[in-house]
Amino acid sequence: MKKFQSLLVLGLASMFLTGCIAVYTPAIGVLFTEVYGPLDAGTRVGAKEGEACAQSVLALVATGDASIKAAARNGGITKIDSVDHYSRNILGVLGEFCTIVRGS
Question: How does pLDDT run across 3-17, given as a tens digit for each residue?
């Protein structure tokens, strides 16, 4: 029983301390994270905006296309001026990472 408890604690700790969403977030909250930040700051902010997101569940399954290319396509942008990100994670259960592209 003691071995099972140790494995359970180790599994829960690894769930909260790992995951691809947290890698790109400068500020991480164990219980809740909701952060905006820059990925690439250009010289100006464009008039158009596009967003592309990826989601994760329990840090076990992650899907989506949060690439700059997908965000530019979603916003109808051909010239990128700046790139930001948005990250949200709730108890390590639900995570979301979005790329926000601005340009013309």
Answer: 656 555 555 555 555
31 φ/ψ angles, rounded to the nearest 5 degrees: -90, -40
Structure tokens at 4: 């099972």
Residues 6+ apart with CB under 8 A from 6: none
CA torsion sign for 42, 44, 46, 50 is: positive
| pTM for this predicted structure | 0.70
Please give the helix or strand (H or E) that residue 20 lies within, else none: helix 20-23
Question: Coil, strand, or helix at residue 3?
Answer: helix
Confidence of residue 20 (pLDDT cuts 50, 70, 90): very low
Q: Residue 103's closest CA among 87, 79, 83, 73?
A: 79
User: DSSP E strands: which ranges in the chain?
Assistant: 32-40, 48-57, 61-64, 80-90, 94-103
Strand partners, 1: none
DSSP at 93? T
